[in-house]
Amino acid sequence: MSHNIEQRDSQYGLEIAWHGLTKVVKEILPKIAFPWGIQLEQMYYGAGEGQKQHGNWVLPIADDDKLPLGSGVPVNLSTYTIRTPSDLWQLRDEVVQGTENTVVSAGTVENRAKFFISTKLNELERVRVADGSEVELLLNSMGSLDKSLNEQHSISSTRIVCANTLMMSFLSDKVKFRYRHSKNMNDAIKADKPLMQEVAGLAAVVKAAFDTLVVQPCNVDRAHRIYTGLIVSPEQKEVSKRAENMVEQHIECFQRGKGNAGQSEFDLLNGWTDLKTHGYEDSKKSRWDTFETSEFGAYATQKSRLANLLINDRDGLNKVEARGRSLMEVKPVEVPA
């Protein structure tokens, strides 16, 4: 995929991005990322003395070079709400008010058609995921000036630095607020603003909840019981060879997966999500199919199930463990020679 940073575009960041076009600065401010404003050029039809104003139709243009934004699509102000980078930044400021934050990337792509702001939520620091790597949690804000994108604000692990990361965030982020540029757009944003502020603050609560798992002990025997209770479906009365193999692979990740020591409930969660993300040893799925299942399909549900049990439903977790213990005590049926 192309980065789509055209001649009129810029991406500002605190460090250089993969495309090498980042304008590195110590602090990203609105006047730095978006030094130009928006003018509305009235649309007309007809020619000469017969020329007439075309109702509420206008063409958004940049005030520095007087050129249209993106593909240069006129909009009808009676049905379409224009939201500029300044509007987006103002809402960002209101959403993160009271939460320590840093803008880590901002700019435009596709000839200023789309604009974006990636804000790191500092109090979350960096969150460790299943494979032992660390990710940032960000508030991503994006919009457009040529009808090419609805406005969206989302909690994301994707830092936007180009067109492809912008679309990755737009399409895959789960916690998001998205708005059509209708005449009631500003009312919808105003109504959702308190919830957006709450979500930005709750991200820190989620991090704190996961941190508690690090100090909750879990040994191999307990991990074995929980994994068995999770993997063997409710209608099954015994552990199949396939299920047993899957459990053993999870135990291996629990004990020796990247960043794991086989000692805590956080290792238990990592050992569970790692294989769901990267695939089992005997999986016939392609890497892309495995990723798709992990992030959007059945595995995504299974990953979140254990996280929810650990953080929100300890009674449910105890029932899963008890079922796993019961299944492991079932003697395999001997087949006559």
How would you describe this structure to a colleague?
By secondary structure, the chain is α+β, with helices and mostly antiparallel strands. The protein has 2 domains: 11-208, no CATH class; 220-329, no CATH class. The protein is built from 10 helices and 12 strands. It has helices spanning 30-33, 85-95, 163-172, 185-214, 220-231, 241-256, 265-278, 287-296, 298-312, 314-329; strands at residues 11-13, 23-24, 38-45, 52-62, 75-76, 101-109, 114-121, 127-128, 134-135, 138-144, 151-156, 175-179. The strands form 3 sheets. Strands 2-1-6-7-10-11-12 form a 7-stranded mixed beta sheet, with helices on both faces. The chain has a 3-stranded antiparallel beta sheet with strand order 3-4-5, with no helix packed on it. A hairpin with a 6-residue loop joins strand 3 (38-45) and strand 4. Helix 6 crosses helix 7 and helix 7 runs antiparallel to helix 9. The chain is elongated and about 95 Å long. The chain starts with 10 loop residues before the first strand and ends in an 8-residue tail after the last helix.
